[in-house]
Amino acid sequence: MQLRPPSVPLITVDPYFSVWSPADRLTDTVTVHWTGHPNTIVGTAEIDGVAYRFMGKLNRNDDTPTLEQTSRDCDALSTTYTFEGAGVCLKATFLTPLLMDDYDLLTRPVSYLRVEAFSTDGVRREVKVKIAVSEEICLNNRGDDEVEVTEYRAGEIPAIKMGSKKQDVLHCSGDDIRIDWGYFHLAVEPGVTGCETLSVPFVPRHRRDTQPEGFKEEMTFVFAESKIPTGTGSGALFLFAYDDIKSIDYFGDQLTSWWNKDGKTIETAICEAFEDITEGDLAAKCKAFSDRLFLDATRAGGEKYAEICELSYRQSIAAHKLAVDKDGEILWISKECFSNGCAATVDMSYPSIPLYLMYNPELVRGMMRPIYKYSRTDKWIFDFAPHDCGQFPLVRGQVYGENALQFQMPVEECGNMLVMAAAVAIADKETKFAEDNLDLLEAWVKYLEAHGDDPENQLCTDDFAGHLAHNCNLSLKAVMGIAGLGVIYKMLGRDADYEAMTEKARKMAKGWAERAANGDGSYRLAFDRPGTWSMKYNIVWDKLMGTGIMDKGVTATEFASYKHHINAYGMPLDNRETYTKSDWLVWTATLAERRDDFEEYVAPLWMNYNATGSRVPMTDWYRTVSAQQVGFQHRTVVGGHFIKLLEYSGKMKGWK
Predict the structure, then answer these.
(1) Which domain holds residue 399?
(2) Can you give the pTM of this predicted structure?
(3) Where residue 612 falls among pLDDT bands split at 50, 70, 90?
């Protein structure tokens, strides 16, 4: 049985250009943005003069007859549906070519839909496919502004663009918002009907007198049509594109993404996208990558683990925007989705790095550059690492807690940055980046040496049930942060400093094991709370990097104790609540020495995603007894699911 996605990815480019189907069948619901707000796209196929819906709904009362969905398949880069009815089999494939070894493809804001038609009864038919996209895709809320629409040709390609009239670029930030600047483009393969505009009656969810001021009774759609003769092996090709004009405000500089850093127009990008898919080997490259990912992940952790990785890949990438600063350096800016919209958040980057260490370590450096830059400004007054650098897409300095000391996460973020610095240096054997920022890394280690052994009452990333002093897992983060600097020293040829730093980490780990022990082989949630328990996921880097900091017997008995705490949908974070975090669950599972133990530990996570009634892009925070979302969705941290594959790859070895 293949994993049933909680929500099915259709268009996954970045935090703004995002379309999902939150249902088992593509025709069951209106398509939505990752936030759950409508991003209405409707697909119909006219067969023998009768229109049938195969994608989305115009609204909840849309009673257009539908084709029967017969299959759905998701891999790392594409989603494919098949439908049958009226003597025709229709195949619809959505593809966003997020290949991390090609920045042009990774950042080009173009996503594909290919629709193919085949006769099921031997009768040759002509099928007309129409794709209609609503104004919601370029407005934050309907009624905020009006749209303007222009038909044009990108070379020989019929296209139409739609955008708000105001065009106030990068004017706002936040979490539960959609883009309302730039232009959406819909294009279709030449030689077909082409593109047009239409307005349709909009059926509101509530009575009209409850609608906001400015609400329109009609909604503007752009649409494209294509004719497909059945039995010819041909299909209709549609392109969805979004030109956001400027992508990120980076400390006052309005930056573009990589794809248009040299002034390339969206029309040129659309032409290149058509050529890549029709004349090049892009589809084959994407399939080869997806197949290899699934095979490698299966070898690392089993088929269920591989299916989790497939679904995580697009989501993690699409919670970022890749921009280029004025020095030409890569910036991989995350959005803290469904939380507070923070940008370049350290404790979002840290859990997500396994995916990027696996496929492109430079993107990890792109996560860290804003933090290093901000830490060197006069606005950052502390001797520890900041939590974030702004609120997406405005990267202007930390917004979390308004820089008040009591809302900082000093041990958390120092440890995160140090582990990230060591891991990315190991992943591609590149040390200059760490060397250039060694002053900050050394300052943050001093903070951990002073405060990390037995952390005082300060925030950490897992304080959902309230923060607490003497947090054992947080202390392990300090241990691995100190060990991380030792790794960097070794790679820089500073053997004496490596030995000294590693000995500090070992001494701290030895003391940790003595003070955290429950006496039965398990270890506590907090040093002063005997009989408690928690996931000790931070120590996983000792295993991955082979630093030899923690006694292996400690890790083995701790992992063995977890089997007593696993519920139907996974192990809780700690003894205080029944909820868990999916990223930390997979990190904890990676402590297992045997693959079958890993598979047994991860299987309930697969069951959660397969059974949950929370039809949202993968949540990382859910209840282990009910498979219900607690909070969070579409977050980049699901990149952390790749940690077992990262271990299997061996990329974290060979630095000594």
Answers:
(1) 292-649
(2) 0.96
(3) very high
